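User: Predict the complex with S-adenosylmethionine.
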Amino acid sequence: MAGVQDDEVKACCSAAYASDWARHLLGESFHPGGLALTKRLGTLLDLGPGKRLLDVAAGCGASAIFLAQQCGCEVIGVEYGHDLVREATRAAEAAGIAHLVRFEQGDAERLAFADDQFDAVMCECAFCTFPNKKVAGGEFARVLRPGGSMGLADLTRSGEVPPELQGLLAWIACIADALSIDEYIYSLRDVGLTVDRIEPHDEALTTLVHDMRTKLFAAELLVKLKQVNLPSLDFERAKALARAADKAVKDGRFGYALITAIKPS
Ligand SMILES: C[S@@+](CC[C@H](N)C(=O)[O-])C[C@H]1O[C@@H](n2cnc3c(N)ncnc32)[C@H](O)[C@@H]1O
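Assistant: Here is the predicted structure with S-adenosylmethionine placed in the model:
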């Protein structure tokens, strides 16, 4: 991101997703399609008891906890934000699943695991926020065992990003540096992974952006009426970004896809 240090981008991103606003606008799952698409990704990754999954950029832990509950696999969630790690750990304990899921603070671009440790690695709606995607992709491939599966769920871009969607806020909202499907394929191939499936789920993004716009308008009203206690927000800026994102999604400039790849044996 021009003019901003990589660590600042990561810190801004994790602070935004740890905020009450993220919970208010997005709920527990910080990605299009919610846990229904997480379930689909879990199926594509063939998760089950005895398998070991790494969830990179795990947010507040909803997907990792859900997949451990649904599939009985062991899950480690790595997340940059300390507050999110604490929240995810508490949620796993409250759900009675802490024997299968744990969370660690860490950076996708510097994973603190030895090579070939995981049967599957997934990264939902976060790859496009990483400043150095090649390094992060290399880390995914490194910690995956030969024959293991990688699952990415992320925004996809067709054509140029409009200027109003190029700032830091749009970057951490996964828009400004979203890749085209071909660029995702090259990024994964570049680190030695073989892409075996691309599944478009554009409607999930359309729904999410529409819901967020509605919630933003409702929140502005409630804040004005002093009916909710949320930290201050530049509503005009947030609404302008949501409006531009809505238009770009409707124009077909952005979509959402699940992409899986295999690490050759
Ligand atoms: C859009 S949220 C997605 C969270 C989660 N995967 C989900 O789908 O609910 C993006 C997450 O990426 C995390 N993140 C950003 N940069 C990171 C990095 N370099 N390493 C680990 N996590 C990172 C943020 O803190 C945030 O929780």
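The chain is about 45% helix and 20% strand.
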